[in-house]
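Weekly modeling sync, notes
Attendees: AB, CL, MP (scribe)

Item 1: holo prediction request
CL wants a bound-state model with heme C before deciding which constructs to order. AB pointed out that an apo prediction alone won't tell us much about the pocket. Agreed to run with the ligand included and paste results into these notes for async review.

Input as submitted:
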Amino acid sequence: MIYGKERIIPALVIFVVVMCTPFIVQLGGASVAPEVELPKEGMCIEAGATMKTSHMQILNDWRNSVVRDANRKHVSEDGREFTMSLTNECMRCHTDKAKFCDRCHNYMAVSPYCWDCHLYPTPKESK
Ligand code: HEC
Ligand code: HEC
Ligand code: HEC
């Protein structure tokens, strides 16, 4: 005997839907990245979409350019000039490492070791 079947089944359906909601929402969205705190003004050294997928490669190129060729000048696709520096350029705009780089990296389970040597600013009102 299956008792209360007419109640249990709908309850189960609701339970499963609720438990799956985060995944369903993610599937519907364009990206599975977490909320990160973006600078309120200014433009990144390249387009946002490019940065999302290629910042690791760009940083690697920057390091090689500085260390091997002593060239510290980055000219963006659209002709803007930047100084190749993780601390002084990237972190000048992305001032809160915890709410930007870390938030995404933790979510993606990557932990760049760069900060063993490179410094980052400590935000005044970090929580
Ligand atoms: C002049 C300010 C500025 C500098 C310098 C800068 N950024 Fe950005 N960055 C931004 C802004 C503003 C956005 C959001 C732009 C957008 O989505 O179009 C952004 C977006 C990004 C994104 C995509 C985030 C997302 O979720 O969409 C990544 C990753 C990123 N930056 C990494 C870097 C790295 C690494 C450096 C140094 C190599 C750097 N940025 C230098 C201002 C800057
Ligand atoms: C929108 C999400 C996102 C943001 C924001 C972001 N990253 Fe990343 N980052 C990633 C992902 C995902 C990877 C791993 C890529 C892979 O393994 O191919 C990665 C990898 C890296 C790597 C290479 C690490 C390795 O061991 O290969 C470096 C360096 C890096 N990120 C630096 C930064 C810095 C510096 C910032 C902040 C200024 C930043 N990232 C912000 C998503 C992000
Ligand atoms: C063992 C220490 C160490 C580690 C770890 C390290 N770096 Fe560096 N990095 C250096 C030194 C030293 C320089 C040369 C500094 C200079 O000439 O300005 C440099 C230069 C750079 C530069 C160009 C200049 C600058 O000031 O930013 C970039 C970009 C860079 N590294 C990125 C990275 C990234 C990305 C990681 C992590 C994936 C990383 N580094 C890990 C020591 C380190």
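Recorded for review: Residues 24-30 have pLDDT under 50 and may be disordered.
Action items: CL to compare against the apo run; MP to circulate these notes.
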